[in-house]
Structures are given as structure tokens and as C-alpha cells.
Amino acid sequence: MFAQHIEFEPEYTSALLSAAATAFVRGYLFATYGRWLVMACIINAAGFGLIVWLGGGGGSAWFAGALALIGPVWLANFYLRYPAKFATRASRSEPPTRIALTPDNVELISRSGSAKVPWSRFRAVVEAPTAFLLVVSPFGYLPLPKQGMPPEAISLLHNRRSSNVA
After folding, report:
1. CA-to-CA distance for 76 and 11, rounded, in angstroms?
2. Domain boundary pick from 92, 123, 146
3. Confidence of residue 23 (pLDDT cuts 50, 70, 90)
4. How would residue 3 be classed by pLDDT, with cut points 50, 70 and 90?
5. pLDDT tens digits for range 99-137
6. Is residue 108 within 8 Å of 117, Cβ to Cβ?
7. 134-163 pLDDT tens trace
8. How many domains does the chain have?
9. In terms of domains, do 67 and 127 share one?
10. Same domain assignment for residues 23 and 76
11. Whether 77 and 39 share a structural domain
């Protein structure tokens, strides 16, 4: 892969965090899970329609109707509002002042300490217009700003992106 230690000082801004959060939710999450979520909404609506068509009533109709209504509303809310929530959460945490990329891990160095995260912990590396997103879980990611990033780091992250990280 590569045998060097690449270090750089990232610059985190509120605009970068907002763009990264939007790319994470709308680009990664919906690209990965969106079809399944939409399919679940369609199945819930079809189930509700079937219950009504068969003349069902009572609690099961209310429950199916609530599922058929709440699913799309939640999905739209998540798509439209969650990028801002992710950006706000990211702006509250202390950003790393230095980042080191090695063959084995990503090292995050901040004023309060440092942490080494092995590449195997990342599910994906996603390239967004202003940053690379190191995805840890469906609700966790680490944005690495492209601005000020050395070309070797960009090349490494492109290789990691194409090889699905681990």
C-alpha cells in the first residue's frame, strides 16, 4: 500500500462541517440505506391499504395507518434536518489539530490528547467535494478536510476508498 507516515494540519470551519454532514446523510446514508427505507415505507402503505380493503378495523388499522404515515414523515425529516444536527454535534467537539495517516491507522492529535484508530474500524471512505469522510457507523463519521491536505494523503484516501477500507 504505502510505507510512509503522512501528517497534516486540517482546517475545520462551520461551512466544512455543514457540507460534510450533508454529504454524509444525503450522499452516504441515503445511497446506502435509502432504497431499503423507501421500500419499508411502501410496504407499510401497502399493508395499510390491504387492511382497509379487506375491511379490517380497530387497533390493527390504526397501527398500520400510523406506520404508513409516520415512516415517510420521519424519512423526509431525516433527509432534510439531520445534516444540520450532525454539523451541530461535530462543531461542539474538539477538532483534531493534526492528523497522521499511516499504513495501519489514522492518528488524531488534539490539544487534549491523541487517538489512533485502525483502518479496520472504518466501514467506508467517502469522497465529498470539500472533505473525505471516514465512516465508522451509520451514525458516525470523521471528516478530513481536503483543503491543506498533502497530495500523498489524497492519493492514499482514494486508494482506501476504492478498496473499501479494511
Report:
1. 31
2. 92
3. very high
4. low
5. 999 888 999 998 888 899 999 999 999 999 999 999 998
6. yes
7. 999 888 899 999 998 999 999 889 888 754
8. 2
9. no
10. yes
11. yes
Mean pLDDT of the chain: 87
What residues contact residue 2 under an 8 Å CB cut-off, 6+ apart? Answer: 103, 152, 156, 159
Q: Is the pTM of this model over 0.70?
A: yes
Q: What is the pLDDT of residues 47-83, one digit of tens each?
A: 888 888 888 777 777 877 888 889 899 999 999 999 9
Q: Are strands 124-127 and 113-118 parallel, antiparallel or unpaired?
A: unpaired
- CB distance 41 to 72 below 8 Å: yes
Burial category of 122 from C-beta neighbours within 10 Å (exposed 0-12, middle 13-18, buried 19 and up): buried
Residues spanned by the domain of 39: 14-92
The 3-state DSSP composition of the chain as helix, strand, coil percent (nearest 5) reads 55, 20, 25
Residues 129, 111 share a domain? yes
Where a domain ends, among 74, 92, 110?
92
Residues 82 and 19 occupy one common structural domain: yes
- DSSP codes joined into one string, 53-101: HTT--THHHHHHHHHHHHHHHHHHHHHHHHHHHHHHHHHHSPPPSEEEE
